[in-house]
Write a structure and sequence with these properties.
The protein is α+β, with helices and mostly antiparallel strands and about 500 residues long. The protein contains 15 helices and 18 strands.
């Protein structure tokens, strides 16, 4: 048995395990309100945001690659989730997870006690782990629980024995105190901004989940009240933003139209065999003078955001169908966020961060999508429309792409000049090279959303790479496309 801290791609399988165990062991004793409250609490988009901010640490128990159980603990020592698959219960898995969390509390978090809101039928098991009840049964949001705690003392928990890890992450086990210290170093990175305050203890009695609004939903107030706003700069003053958040946007003054948020949300909560969850956000334009153009613009913005949903669910590809049929617990998960990186009176450029599970937990994928569209008539532009794809441009563009890929001279070397030209013109070559571009404050970036197979020797591990050109630099390669006439002179 191996216990390790989970990485981001493992969170969704962990939450799937949590729901399976809850549905079988706990839900029958809950009210419908309680079940709905718990479902809201374990939504992936909320939990992943908590995890990425360092405000939850997830441990997973693995046997021969199978996740058998999971435990999530907050920086104040409160166990937020603790579930073990039925076939692995009463075999020591829960104790090893608990021991790992205890060691984290003792060596890194520095808290004086661990707390948990235990379901009534789990109280006895927590007692065997050294916890004791601090009040009678409570109820909130349809869920019954018993508040419990255990003081954390030096040397108060023995190190669990485990098989040697075959995974790339550091695991607790019989390696001794040295590797425990390495785990602590890993925890320091994961919890770099955490502050633990005594006020958290008081809130345990008020809220079984420890979140500000009492519903299990993360509405943002908890972060701001307890940990402050996220700092977008490191100690040197340099920006630490990444992905689409790092793109500097341009928004013209006094736009005659409004940019609102729209979304497509679907959850297959009534499906027993397949986990389906879609949460897709995209911009919606209102107030254009030409109503027909406005409709075309909004259709394009929505369709770009929903590309993965269509491919996975509304019109599934043969690959997805085959993948789903071969899985005992298929996963069709898609989350999409966006950023309007350029908006002028006549033109808008939008980037979408698209990620999720495309059939099973073994097919985690992330994509960059872009939509560049005229607000005058709804024309959507592609790379082939806006630049001349001659050899001179290809050479310059490839050089910049390799600079962006950590100066890797072999990046994209599997393609010759003609293949690169075809890919930028729209031939994705079985979906591997999806050409895209976006405008922003300083110019334009042109590149690929990359979808290599994991074992492809050309795969460098990049989700997407784009080559930046300033407005002056791109002028040398610009085509006679009408798009260039729709760009504000103030930025060019």
């Amino acid at each position: 048995m191996e216990i390790r801290m989970l990485q981001l791609p493992e969170l969704l399988p962990a939450l799937h395990l949590v729901w399976e165990v809850f549905a079988e062991d706990i839900a029958p004793e809950c009210t419908p309100e309680g079940v709905a409250s718990f479902q809201r609490f374990i939504k992936y988009d909320y939990i992943s945001e908590v995890w990425q901010r360092g405000n939850l640490v997830f441990f997973g128990a693995y046997e021969e690659g199978e996740m058998c159980g999971t435990l999530a603990i907050r920086p104040d020592g409160h166990i937020a989730l603790f579930f073990v698959k039925k076939q692995w219960q009463h075999k020591g898995v829960g104790r090893m997870l608990f021991q790992s969390a205890y060691l984290l509390c003792e060596y890194q978090l520095g808290v004086s006690k661990m707390t948990v809101n235990a379901t009534p039928n789990a109280v006895e098991r927590y007692i065997h782990m050294g916890m004791h009840a601090v009040s009678d049964v409570c109820e909130k949001d349809g869920l019954r629980y018993v508040p419990m705690e255990r003081y954390v003392t030096s040397g108060g928990m023995a190190v669990p024995k485990q098989k040697k890890s075959k995974a790339p992450w550091i695991a607790l086990g019989a390696f001794g105190a040295f590797l425990i210290l390495l785990l602590i170093v890993t925890a320091v990175v994961a919890l770099n901004d955490v502050r633990v305050e005594s006020e958290n203890r008081r809130r345990e009695a008020e809220n079984p989940y420890g979140y500000e609004d009492g519903s299990g939903l993360f509405d943002g107030s908890w972060w701001q009240d307890e940990y402050g706003e996220e700092d977008e700069n490191d100690d040197s003053g340099e920006s630490t933003l990444s992905g689409i958040d790092a793109i500097s946007e341009y928004m013209a003054d006094d736009l005659s139209y409004e940019i609102d948020v729209d979304e497509y949300v679907y959850s297959g909560e009534d499906m027993q065999s397949t986990m389906i969850e879609f949460s897709v956000s995209y911009p919606k334009i209102t107030g254009l003078a030409d109503e027909e153009a406005e409709q075309k613009v909004n259709e394009a913005l929505k369709n770009t955001a929903k590309e993965t949903v269509v491919r996975l669910y509304e019109n599934p590809s043969p690959e997805v169908k085959e993948r789903v049929m071969g899985e005992s617990t298929p996963m069709l998960i898609n989350y999409v966020t966006y950023k309007v990186c350029y908006a002028s009176e006549d033109f808008i450029s939008v980037v979408y961060d698209d990620y999720g599970y495309e059939g099973s937990q073994n097919y985690y994928a992330q994509h960059l999508r872009t939509c560049n569209i005229s607000l005058k008539d709804g024309t959507v532009y592609e790379v082939k429309d806006i630049v001349g794809l001659n050899d001179y441009f290809i050479e310059e563009w490839l050089s910049i792409m390799r600079q962006e890929a950590n100066n890797d001279a072999s990046f994209l070397s599997e393609l010759n000049t003609e293949s690169l030209r075809n890919a930028l013109a729209g031939d994705s070559q079985d979906g591997i090279y999806e050409a895209n571009f976006f405008l922003y404050e300083d110019g334009i970036e042109i590149g690929f959303d990359l979808n290599y197979e994991s074992d492809d020797p050309a795969n460098r591990g990049y989700v997407w790479v784009t080559a930046p050109f300033s407005w002056d630099e791109i002028g040398e390669y610009a085509s006679d496309s009408a798009m260039w006439d729709e760009i504000d002179e103030s930025v060019r």
